[in-house]
Amino acid sequence: xxxxxxxxxxxxxxxxxxxxxxxxxxxxxxxxxxxxxxxxxxxxxxxxxxxxxxxxxxxxxxxxxxxxxxxxxxxxxxxxxxxxxxxxxxxxxxxxxxxxxxxxxxxxxxxxxxxxxxxxxxxxxxxxxxxxxxxxxxxxxxxxxxxxxxxxxxxxxxxxxxxxxxxxxxxxxxxxxxxxxxxxxxxxxxxxxxxxxxxxxxxxxxxxxxxxxxxxxxxxxxxxxxxxxxxxxxxxxxxxxxxxxxxxxxxxxxxxxxxxxxxxxxxxxxxxxxxxxxxxxxxxxxxxxxxxxxxxxxxxxxxxxxxxxxxxxxxxxxxxxxxxxxxxxxxx
Length: 332
Description:
332 residues, alpha+beta, Structural Genomics Hypothetical 15.5 Kd Protein In mrcA-pckA Intergenic Region, Chain A, Pseudouridine synthase, 3 domains, eleven-stranded mixed β-sheet, four-stranded antiparallel β-sheet, 15 strands, 27% strand
């Protein structure tokens, strides 16, 4: 069978399935005809035809290219699309929610590091030969931009930028209730007394009991009635769960929060249902450790994030309509 060939559908072959047409023209078994389509070897009038049950029409040109590349598995293709930037020193990846930045357990799989190595393998590169060094992390339940270094010098330089707060980061989140623009400052500790991370009481700070300074700047993007608030968040410090803790302690836990929700529910409030934490690392900017180039990357929230906001808007409209309907009408 030649590597490339083409046929024009005649009146006698009109309305046959693509697999039947290929079987007849090439004198091959049904299984081979179907596999040829599914492996992206066949096109109709120049457009990919992967469905062997598709009907062909008179006058169409059916082309076969045996050298066409086999499609990547969806997971590998998605991994390739997740790499936002890469050069010899570093890479930036758009991490989905639900996977860890790095392995926290020895046998943990499907982390952001694994995602990068899957993409490298798909490109034919030896993924085990290239080291990846951790520069920072974002929570497992948070989506968005994450950076790794590829060399030790780049790792040291980038970590220095983080230590000196010379990394520009902006997060988007959706919080319960009606938020206002503000800066939240506190000293965070690993255990506030009930097993949760949290802020040290002010009197303990004044007595020198420790804690690590955390600064969070909150800017309102949209009020969704009184139901929720879309916020842009910038952090001067990058402490573990900093944004989640600060918003929860302010009485506005992020929607989808599963950990720092205890105080909210104790006050008798009901968390809004959501399948994921509505927190996304939207922008990441820094000076390249080797070239000195000023780099800035931005990735919008994923579709499920936007869909959750639309559901909240719909809920807010319904609540507003109910309030208006309950108000007495003026006498005529």
